[in-house]
Design a protein that fits this description.
Number of helices: 18
Strand order of the largest sheet: 3-2-1-4-5-6
Strand content: 5-15%
Number of strands: 14
Largest sheet: 6 strands, parallel
Bound molecules: uridine-5'-diphosphate-xylopyranose
Mean pLDDT: 95
Helix content: 40-55%
Shape: globular
Low-confidence stretches: none
């Protein structure tokens, strides 16, 4: 066996200081004080934000993250733009760059764009002077490790690599809790060679610093890569399944929450991920399913591809259905009307807006000439505008940039967003929305005072007694 692969890990590098790389490395550094962890990124502003003395400036918002960063940063956790130096020094390198859906060429709109992963592999191959364990942390199509290996082996200068897959299962908003208490950690590698097994064990040892060994699962690389896509596809499928039933509930007088409770108490089904909503968002579900669908089609499995694609079709339907219900309830037009959005993030407790249902709902209403007033406790104005411009770039709507800027208004406090509104739409389930003074809001709104609760978080009975006309999902 190559002796260098058997040495304990002293230095870790992670390329990509995003929603996954940042919190994951912060927790590894917190729990493994003897390992120096360096997180690098090509975006200097991101690194400057991670290094900011003011912890409110950290580039991502996650409950508990500040505390972990305070404990480890400067001790054994470092953020830097010097990618080459971090690669050289590390025995283990995580690749945690983004893998968006391709927006061009072959596989456009479906396949994962691996250009950043490939760039990382090339950079590692060019810079490395001793043996490395390369860990895929980004979610990747099954068999990507083969492409990484081919680059590393062909560009490289005699250095030996072990490639592991170690997909991340954390959910945003609960990332630190999920990392501290992971249900399982998955490590895919090559069991059949001593070097492969040693690399898997080295990574397992890191997680074993804080997790019970029985939760650390080892598989072959392809199973590990595919498990990540499958886990996200199953979770998204549950949301689409309950959302499909929510449409039927609205037609039949059944209540989707009662149905969810009834089926969720069957231990074979379980209660989680059965919350009907305006539609799932986030950086993973849609991208990973599209990717799965693309892989199935490329393998000639069209029935399997169609099956999974339906999860996305149902989600698009749910977002459109919510927006169209607002328009039809407001007497078939929202032209010139003030629609107040509570929430923009794709879920509570995060400032992440990737694929958020809010931007799709806003686009549909803005095409019908609505004036949208948004209040979200964590999302910035620039982000909201850039989300709508992103949908322009996909031709999702035909609003011009100037129109976007005149029809969307961002508020830093809730009540100004809500006053004189024709309707309120709840797009994110932030806890604070529940405790607002709804009587004061009612008094300041135009009548009839419509509320469209896309997250079923408001107390419908109480709001009705105040005088609101409230619409909830699946009720
Ligand atoms: C992650 C995963 O890695 C992705 O595969 C998963 O499906 C979604 O979550 P995430 O951490 O959320 O991505 O992405 P993002 O917050 O965009 O962070 C990626 C970072 O990588 C960015 O800060 C970007 O600047 C950096 N990057 C990208 C590099 O440092 N080098 C590159 O070549 C490309
Ligand atoms: C997901 C996976 O849960 C995580 O394991 C993986 O690593 C990354 O993708 P994330 O996207 O951060 O995590 O959040 P998640 O809690 O899964 O929610 C995704 C979307 O589904 C959100 O928009 C959420 O509001 C929605 N959702 C979730 C529902 O509408 N109903 C539910 O019952 C659960």
């Amino acid at each position: 066996m190559n002796p260098s692969l058997n040495k304990p890990i002293k230095n870790i590098a992670c390329i990509g200081a995003g929603y996954v790389g940042g919190p994951t490395m912060a927790v590894i550094a917190q729990k493994c004080p003897k390992i120096k962890v360096t997180v690098v990124d090509i975006n200097p502003q991101r690194i400057a934000d991670w290094n900011d003395e003011d912890l409110d400036k950290l580039p991502i918002y996650e409950p508990g993250l500040k505390e972990v960063v305070t404990e480890a940063r400067g001790r054994n956790l470092f953020f830097s733009t010097d990618v080459d130096a971090a690669i050289k020094e590390a025995q283990m390198i995580f690749i945690s760059v983004n893998t968006p859906t391709k927006t061009y060429g072959k596989g456009k709109g479906m396949a994962a764009d691996l250009k950043y992963v490939e760039l990382c592999a090339r950079q590692i191959a060019e810079v490395a002077t001793d043996d490395k364990i390369v860990v895929e942390k980004s979610t990747l199509p099954v068999r990507t490790a083969q492409a990484i290996r081919s680059i590393l082996d062909n560009v490289g200068n005699g250095v030996k690599y072990q490639i592991l897959s170690n997909p991340e299962f954390l959910a945003e908003g609960t990332a630190i809790h999920d990392l501290h208490n992971a249900d399982r950690v998955l490590i895919g590698g090559d069991h059949h060679t001593p070097e492969g097994q040693a690399a898997m064990d080295a990574l397992a040892d890191i997680y074993a610093q804080w997790l019970p060994e029985k939760r650390i699962l080892q598989t072959n690389v392809w199973s590990s890569e595919l498990s990540k896509l499958t886990a996200n596809a199953f979770l998204a499928q549950r949301v689409s399944s309950i959302n499909a039933i929510s449409a039927l509930c609205e037609k039949t007088g059944a209540d989707v929450e009662e149905v969810a409770r009834a089926i969720g108490s069957d231990s074979r089904i379980g209660p989680k991920f059965l919350k009907a909503s305006v539609g799932f968002g986030g950086s993973c579900f849609q991208k990973d399913i599209l990717n799965l669908v693309y892989i199935c089609r490329s393998q000639g499995l069209s029935e399997v591809a169609d099956y999974w694609e339906q999860v996305i079709i149902m989600n698009d339907y749910q977002k459109r259905r919510f927006a169209e219900n607002i328009i039809s309830t407001l007497y078939n037009t929202v032209s010139g009307k003030k629609i107040a959005f509570l929430g923009w993030a794709f879920k509570k407790d995060t400032n992440d807006t990737r694929e958020t249902a809010a931007m799709y709902v806003a686009s549909t209403l803005m095409e019908d000439k609505a004036e949208i007033h948004v209040y979200d406790p964590k999302v910035t104005e620039e982000q909201i505008i850039s989300d709508l411009e992103y949908l322009s770039s996909l031709n999702y709507h035909n609003l011009r940039d100037k129109q976007i800027r005149t029809q969307i208004h961002i508020h830093t406090a809730p009540y100004t967003a809500l006053e004189n509104a024709h309707a309120i739409a709840v797009l994110t389930e932030w806890d604070e929305f529940k405790s607002y003074d709804w009587r004061r809001i009612y008094n300041a709104m135009l009548k009839p005072a419509f509320v469209f609760d896309g997250r079923n978080i408001l107390n419908a009975k109480e709001l009705k007694s105040i005088g609101f006309k409230i619409y909830q999902i699946g009720k």
